[in-house]
Amino acid sequence: MSSNAVAIPDARSESRPWVLALHDWVTTVDHKRLGILYVLYALLFLVIAGCEAMIIRIQLMFPHNAFVSPQVFNRMFTMHGTTMIFFVAVPVLLGFSNYLVPLMVGARDMAFPRLNAFSFWLTALGGLLLYFSLLGGNGLYGAGSAPDIGWWAYAPLALKAFSPGHSSDYWTISLIVSGFGTVGTAVNVIATILCMRCPGMHLGRMPLLVWLNLVMSGMLLIVMTPLTAAQLMLLVDRYLGGHFFDTQAGGSATLWMHFFWIFGHPEVYVLILPCFAFISEIVPVFSRKPMFGYPVMVAASVAIGFVSMSVWAHHMFTIGMNSYANSFFAITTMAVGVPTGIKMFNWIGTMWGGRIELKTPMLFAIGFLFQFLIAGLTGIMLAAAPFDWQLGLSYFVVAHFHYVIVGGILFALFGAFYYWYPKVTGRMMNETLGRWHFWLFVIGFHLCFDLMHIPGLLGMPRRIYTYEPGRGWDTLNLLVSLGAFVQAVAVLLFVANLVLSYFRGEKAGNDPWDAWTLEWSVSSPPPAYNFARIPTVASRRPLWDLKHAEDPDSRYE
Amino acid sequence: MTSTQRSASAVPFPALETPGAWRLPYRGTVGMACLIIAESAIFTIFVVAYLYYVGKSLSGPMPRDVLEVPIFFTFVLLSSSLTIHLAQKALERGARGAFLGPWLATIGLGALFLYGTGREWQRLIDEHGLTLSTNLFGTTYYSLVGLHAFHVAVGLALMSLVALFALAGRVGRQHSARVGTLALYWHFVDAVWVVVFTVVYVIGR
Fold this sequence. Notes:
Radius of gyration of chain A: 24 Å
Shape of chain B: elongated
Number of strands of chain A: 0
Oligomer: heterodimer
Structural class of chain B: mainly alpha
Largest interface: A-B, 64 and 48 residues
CATH topology of chain B: Four Helix Bundle (Hemerythrin (Met), subunit A)
Radius of gyration of chain B: 24 Å
Strand content of chain B: under 5%
Largest sheet of chain B: none
């Protein structure tokens, strides 16, 4: 028995009735269980929003297709976008930080365990509210059954005159509710990192994952709340007869755009920073080298946090801002590429000369590096305002941000799943299935999103429900849709791998990857109390110091 | 693999260089500071909307015609920051009696401020017919001042809870850090009023 697992008789034995087990999960304040709940909840919505994407792609497979009506198509892309951002990406990343941050800083739980549970259930309620609109959205008017105003809900479309009924209200309220949940968790993560670190882990010794989650949570505080404020204003307009965005009474539709994108663009960085965090843990372990340029990585992360706050209006080049605003936002947008580029070089520098082990997590990490680079490059293209006037609101933009979110965020997330699954469940994920998942997903991804740039360049606008034949978009759209199906099959393989490995997977042991951060020092799955004895660390890689007492890192840092 | 694990568990963690010197900030203060940052962002958006719409109302009444500067109630709210500070310092000393007086005074001053807001709204509605839906001024004014008043009300509820415990004799020195967290929130509410006051009654008039 290791020094970290004291023999405490396990209260949750196999023979407990399932009602009691369920009760345990519903009332839990344990950061690990809440982390798992977050992730499972996000996976459920990943499948739902994935189905919506499939409906969109089936509709666009052929010109003049009539698989769904234009109205349903509007609802599908609205629900797909809203769900993927707010109820897949945010909760799954919060789930990972919930699970990993306390373990990596050597704490027994988050700083505020009950706030943690409260935040999760708020987020869960938010998702239910959004989908309850399918039942309750008719209201008294019989108009609309799900929100159909696009995920950015531009005014005045979102106002009562153009969106009667209650579907848009469900959208608004679900985002307010889940926004409070997100802010609660952000507060919790920051307090955990600043106040719960184990002895010896000063800021310069925190794992990069913890650093990046600190920056992400700090951003969430000032990014999520403007959205909440804007949604409150929208509710005032819709219900109390206010005029914030009512152009008839002197209100401004542009103001909504600013408020939305003040949230909307930093949100992308909120999502990508935890993915940088995963890559920063996976790449060193599978290159068998410590992270190259740790202080620079930290500085670059903080720089991204700051600079990304001042880029939002590059989403608004096409609405006709003055040339000063255009220049400012073009320059800041390109500037945010600099710290991101530093990170890319540091990851490559970590791999350089390392003994690279091409296990599934590393495959996904390498895929991330390539694809995120390309996504960043099309981002730089779109940051040039004149280029954006030409291609804004086209499929080029859709291809660009899906390259970021699928090629970047989702790939990093898959890597994280393969990497930490053994810690969470105690069993390894199947490598063969993992490789099938990776290669199928890579092929499907590139078929879908590489080709999607081209109809955009050829002038295909986003959010159209169908198109004329003979514009050069037909074959490309068919191939894009086929790519989407290949990705769907790959995701099904992934889900199958998750389920099968839980029952049949090979036993993982404490430290299957021979890794260096504290979570691998406890049993898999970790006991409820995490650490029987709070550890003390003397370097950035405490487990390296343990395993190599003759040559510890602490000597060089 | 297993041998690594065994060696990992066999070697004790290295001792801290300077034992006993490991101090981290209090999580309540950090949590409340985070909440204040988040709330500041919400208020910033409402303040920006207010400033953006100054003078853009298409019809009256205009702020210059109807708003009266609430000097007295501003004085009331700002002095409550002083009383809560006195109360908190008393609690840190363990002086329970010296805590309860200023604490109740804080609640009283906060309630008086809310009454002031209520009177002002009543006057605007009854005498000038200004409601939230009248014009852009009405929309932004009631939203911004109302958002602040809501935060005052939340603070009053929380402070009253503490007051109930204190009257029951259950608040002592060991709670001074937690009470300090609440005091931090109250200072924030006061500071926001300085901004709201400047924006609504100085710049916006």
